[in-house]
Design a protein that fits this description.
Number of strands of chain A: 13
Largest interface: A-B, 93 and 93 residues
Strand content of chain A: 25-35%
Mean pLDDT of chain A: 82
Structural class of chain A: alpha+beta
Helix content of chain A: 10-25%
Radius of gyration of chain A: 23 Å
CATH topology of chain A: Glutamine Phosphoribosylpyrophosphate, subunit 1, domain 1
CATH architecture of chain A: 4-Layer Sandwich
Oligomer: homodimer
């Protein structure tokens, strides 16, 4: 599978992708799912791909070839003739001089949505495990490096729960109005920062869990009783009558 | 949708289910997905259901009617004539006097798996959001009330991310070799313990996140540099050549 996430902030853009590709659990490879297009001082763009690997590669190829042929429709990604076997998800974002930051999610059929203040990030691939931390942290005001940290925690949660998402990780941090970046890094599991994040997050989550009070079943002995105040909702009926004899 | 979780511990069993049923987001109802069978001092069992509501209700009904007819196959759940439209997931567990604790997950086709020391919990329905905390906390040695707390945190994460999982929640804690329980509670969102858990978990997660160091891009100024040590993995190639003119 795949997990890619991209975040649009007031301060810039963050892109993160895994690189595991699998055709069944017995056939695992490593392919980059991120491609960076940069014309320093003029424009900077990043493409993230999920879905069928051959389709994703074809789409990239077509995008670049189309441009070589100077086709006019360069300002939006259009994927034509999608059919039911056409399985690909793209995230595409960046900035062109004279314009603002933009971030898009493109679906298999070629339709797309753009990130907004209310929806500042997009995910493709295995999105569920890594979504809660994004929802808790990311707003347009989040600083770039904090958002990069959040993307890495999101990726870490995903890799912990889905073996088909794996390292190395490609991370790009783009600062608004720079039209280039040096903050491009490929992280394997030996990277000291990633290792710190991975172990600290796991350990501290456990400490938070332990710090929360266990439920107490006797109302008299706790500030936060588990029992529902009378009348608030119906207790569950047990089936104990002799004519219901499953037991 | 639905989220149900059941945990088998040395100390007993924990069962938790939501109660939201929906046929599209514009048609939401509340149905209990948990049923408790108890013959005090002799046996105690709980059934959790996910999937198509009418099928789940039919399965319960058949189980109880079959028993009324004194059919011999009472010690396993068999669901026959499953076809492709048959969408239901069950968790069934409990204890009969003279036997150990048992917990099963039953699939639509009627086949089933039993919980073990290595796999001490089962989930049905929307399982992904609530799985990480279970993986971090639950072992067979976990005390009952701590496991109940873990199940509630797992449910809370699920409800935060999937609107089709919702309150009230039905929670049962069964202590081994008691063959009955009084620890059965229906929790709505006003329950003081649940409110404490919900707000503390969210707030403390955020504190943990904030306590982790942001990445620093200059190796010279940090103990945990983000840059990959030379040679460890290949940096991502930017496309900047003039003949690759997407940009």
């Amino acid at each position: 599978m795949t997990y890619c996430v991209a975040i649009k902030l007031n301060a810039g853009l963050v892109f993160l992708s895994d690189s595991r590709t699998n055709a069944g659990v017995d056939n695992i490879s490593t392919y980059r799912k991120m491609i960076v297009y940069e014309r320093p001082g003029d424009r900077f763009m990043v493409l993230l791909t999920a879905g069928n690997l051959s389709i994703a590669q074809s789409v990239r190829e077509i995008l670049q070839v189309e441009q070589l042929q100077e086709r006019p429709d360069t300002d939006a990604i259009t994927i034509r003739n999608a059919n039911s076997r056409f399985n690909v998800g793209l995230i595409f974002g960046g900035q062109i001089r004279g314009e603002g930051l933009r971030l898009f999610q493109v679906y298999s059929a070629g339709n797309f949505v753009e990130a907004t203040t209310e929806t500042p990030y997009f995910q493709v691939g295995e999105y569920k495990y890594g979504k809660p931390v994004l929802d808790r942290v990311i707003t347009p005001e989040t600083p770039l490096d904090e958002a990069a940290k959040c993307a890495l925690v999101s990726m870490d949660s995903t890799m912990k729960s889905n073996l088909s998402v794996g390292p190395p990780l490609d991370l790009v941090v783009y600062e608004a109005n720079r039209f280039q970046t040096d903050k491009i890094v490929c992280l394997d599991m030996q990277n000291p920062y990633y290792r710190m994040l991975h172990s600290s997050w796991g350990q501290k989550l456990r400490e938070v869990f332990d710090s929360l009070e266990d439920p107490v079943w006797d109302d008299a002995h706790t500030e936060v009783p588990l029992k529902v105040p009378a009348g608030r909702s119906k207790p569950l009926k047990k089936i104990t009558r002799p004519d219901e004899r499953l037991i």
